[in-house]
Amino acid sequence: MSVLDNFEQWKEFLAERLQQAQQQGLNQQVISDVAYQIGDYLAKHVDPKNPEERVLADLWSVADEREQHALANMMVKLVQHRQH
User: Fold this and answer.
1) Do residues 33 and 77 touch, judged by C-beta distance below 8 A?
2) What would be the CATH architecture of the domain defined by 3-83?
3) Which residue among 20, 49, 54, 70 sits deepest, i.e. has the most Cβ atoms within 10 Å of its Cβ?
4) Confidence (pTM)
5) How many Å apart are CA 20 and CA 36, to the nearest integer?
């Protein structure tokens, strides 16, 4: 089973990767840029596996680059919130 099959598992996976990045000293801008790159890759190469991912993919597809960065930043905030 892929972490992409279940949205809760996906968020947990992202939270763990975020925590690792922070422990390695990556700053928020680098984390934000990586989140954007991941979102862009997923949107272009991975079919959504659940309704939540479908919504994110649909939003990504109609967003301009600035909005895509905002969406990526919101995903980072979402998983950061899970850590607290």
Assistant:
1) no
2) Orthogonal Bundle (1.10)
3) 49
4) 0.82
5) 17
